[in-house]
Design a protein that fits this description.
Mean pLDDT: 80
Number of helices: 9
CATH superfamily: ABC-type transport auxiliary lipoprotein component
Number of domains: 1
CATH topology: Rossmann fold
Distance between the termini: 53 Å
Pfam families: GNA1162-like (PF05643)
Keywords: Membrane, Transmembrane, Transmembrane helix
Largest sheet: 6 strands, mixed
Helix content: 40-55%
Protein name: DUF799 domain-containing protein
InterPro entries: GNA1162-like
CATH architecture: 3-Layer(aba) Sandwich
Shape: globular
Strand content: 15-25%
Radius of gyration: 24 Å
Order of helices and strands: HHEEHEHHHEEEHHH
Low-confidence stretches: 12-29, 173-182, 184-191
Amino acid sequence: MIKNNENTLMQWLKLGLVGAVIVLTGCVSMPSAHDYSAFRNADPHSILVLPPINNSVEVIAPYSLLSQVTGPIAESGYYVFPVTLVEQTFRNNGLTEATDIHAVPFERVHEIFGADTGLYMTIEKYGTSYVVLSSETVVAISATLVDLRSGNVLWQDKATASSAESRGNSGGGLVGMLVEAAMNQIIETITDRGFDIAAISSNRLLFAESHNGLLYGPRSPKYGQPVTSEKQK
């Protein structure tokens, strides 16, 4: 009798676990895909990257990011205005702060540069932090692509990358973890690991091959084809 009761209990437990797995599986879903209709209708050929707003404490963050964003945009098939010349043009017109530059009317930006679109970026996080048992360099950015001919928002997204993503478990116990965290902080600060992490964030955010990245531009052999997130719908 007792054995029968145990078997019945085990069967109920198994059924409960199966039900829980089904419920949890039903809750898991892929990140929602962008609606690219406005982007595709606008069909931009050129992108002007404005100096990013820096919400981090690192003064070097905007320069580090600007040196990385041209690559994924150009590789996606767009003409990118040279970022240093763009910044210098704004400086020559008395605009040195990114917040003031972002406030310039889109018609005026289009009039000066003749670009189809403007990429407005914000650096949310940049730099190396130490928290007792761990140390990592994080770069988090958000961006909005605006049609400078109409003022319409064509695309927007955000991306984050961390140096901790590629690390394994040190297995050295508490003391080993403390030493490793301290060493990581020193090394990543001295070597400005943020530069490398900014490249990863930029690619995740902008590259057409990334989920919810830019569309393929006119200079890409895949121009007009659906991007990754559209294929996953």
